[in-house]
Every structure is written in C-alpha cells, then in structure tokens.
Amino acid sequence: MAVLPGHVFPFIPDAAAPASPEIDSAWKGKNMAGELEGKVAIVTGGARGLGQGVVEVFAEEGARIIIADLLEDEGQALTASLGNVARFRRTDVSSREDMQALVDYAIAEFGDLDVMMNNAGISDNDAASVLDADFASFERIMAINVKGVMLGTQIAGRHMAKKGGGSVINTSSISGIHAGFGFFSYRASKAAVVNFTKTAACELGVHLVRVNCICPGNIPSEMGAFAATPGLEDEKASRIKQAVKDTRMNWQPLKRQGAPRDIANGALYFGSDRSAQVTGQILAIDGGATCGDSKSQIADILEARATVEAEF
Predict the structure, then answer these.
(1) pLDDT of residue 95
(2) What CA–CA distance (Å, rounded) separates 300 from 137?
(3) Per-residue pLDDT tens over the stretch 179-220
C-alpha cells in the first residue's frame, strides 16, 4: 500500500508493544544488574505513577530508597512490597522544612544520599484558551513543580557537595520543551524546571554533583490522564481513556505505548555511574513526539495541488 510521507495512522495495538500496565509486567525483573548497588536514593512523588516505576527499578538495581509523597496509603503499601530496602516519608515538597527533614531522614536511615529524584508534580489539566484561562492554580503548580525541584536540588546538593558528588534528577515534561495549546501554568512550570536544571548543573559541577532532567511524553498516569472524569461509570470512563490514548498515539512517530518503566530506565542511567560524565542534559522519553512535525506538510501541499489539478 502506497503511503504519503507523514501519514498519521490510527493506533493499532501491537502484541509486541503492550500498553501499561502489561508492559511494566513484561519489564519486571529484567534489569537487576546491580547498577545502583550500595547507593541511597530519594524519589519524590514516588507512591504511584511515574515515581512508582522509578522506585521499583531502583530497588531492583540494588538501591535503598526513601519514597516521599503526600499519598500515605499508596506510599506505605509500595514500601511494604519492597521490604527492608525502602522507607516512606510523608513530604510536602513545597515546604523547606519537609524537604530538609526528608534528606536528613534518608541519611539517618541509610547513612548517605547519592541520588535525588525530584519527581513530584501536579497539573491543572486546564485546556482553556489563553484568552479564557483563569490561572487559578498557578501558585500551587509553581510551588510544587518548580519550588519543590529547587528545594530538592539545593538541600540534597548541599550533602552531595560535602561528600564529593552525587546525582540529581529532575522530572520536567515534553510540555517544558515543546510549545503547544493549553495547560499554560503547567507548561511554564516545566519549562522552568528545564532551565533550572541547566543552571544548577553549571554551578554544582565543581562539586561533582550532576544535575539532569527527564521530559516524559505520552505515559498514562493519574496526573496526565485528562481523560479521567470522576463520577462516570466504569465502561464509559474506560472508553474515554482509550480514546484519549489512541489520539495521543497519533501524535508520536513511535507507535508503542510508553510506560513508567521507560522513564525509570532513563532515571537509572542518570542515577548510575554510567552517566558519570553527563550533566545539564535534558532527556525526552516521548516516542519521538518532540523530534519534529507529527505529519507531513509536503503531503498536505501535494494533496492541495491534486485537489486543484482535479478541477481541470
């Protein structure tokens, strides 16, 4: 079948590329190379979603982990499932006191801190036009998404600088590196994380503290699923989520559904000694969504020409 360049295919699930959570199950147990053996890590927002994926992979790779979150039930359950290598600490990342106590707790429990992943974040899921948006959640989004990252980097960085090095990993989003419609407060916060990551990397390099950033793309999660509509019956909610998932898939070149463990494997690289010479880098894990145009302008031009030519 001849296909015009840039043709956007409808998403067709592939057995070789299962969607989350099946893809997470397929990955489990396949790392286990001891990449983080002997290291201590903190993962904020680690109780579920992308953070949970990071926590699980870090544990498999030998790290001892502090799971920091406001979701106490989920955090305690995840901690219990991992055994003695994990602890849970209820933490508001926008609070300097909470973040200082978190770092102090990690050192008290496990004796050190080698990897700080500032992953906690929120979104307003506001798809309104810039002319209509009320920016009602701006302060809260900035406090968690930006101030939380800054505090985590600063407080963990102080300990790492004293001990001679470490790795800080910040979670941004493809919305922070690629402009688009809606979600203005969220986009602004994630762009700030990208710039702060590079700025901190410039300053902390002299202490051998590496600061890098991951920008997740289309990964189903509680925060990113603006298909989530409370109060809908299960079947309707499920169909809406699937419709959103299929639509998002059309906007990325790689026709494979990403999962939290894809993000976790990027964090594993930044947290391990394999990235010893890497700092100030922004890694998009997005199925190619930010690599270029999602459809071919040439194809549209040829189609427009063909329409006119058919009239003569």
Answers:
(1) 98
(2) 39
(3) 988 899 999 999 999 999 999 999 999 999 999 999 999 888
Residue 169, Cα to own-chain centre: how many angstroms? 10
- Which tokens belong to 230? 């409370």
- The answer to whether 149 touches 193, Cβ cutoff 8 Å, is yes
pTM of the full structure: 0.85
Per-residue pLDDT tens for 239-254?
877 888 888 878 888 8
d(CA 280, CA 45): 22
Per the annotation, the verdict on 269 as an active-site residue is no
> How many residues would you count in the chain?
312
Q: State the pLDDT at residue 245.
A: 80
Q: Which residue segments constitute the domains of the chain, with CATH numbers given?
A: 22-309 (3.40.50.720)
Instruction: Kindly give the residue spans of alpha helices, DSSP state H, lying in 143-183.
Output: 148-163
Q: Write out the two tokens for 141.
A: 């989004």
Tokens of 132: 């209509």
> Whole-angstrom Cα distance, residue 311 to residue 116?
63
Residue tagged active-site, from 110, 183, 184, 186: 186
| Burial of 267 from C-beta contacts in 10 A (0-12 / 13-18 / 19+) | buried
CB 232 within 8 A of CB 240: yes
- Of 30, 61, 49, which Cα lies nearest the Cα of 274? 61
Distance, in Å, from the CA atom of 97 to the CA atom of 120, rounded to the nearest integer, reads 16
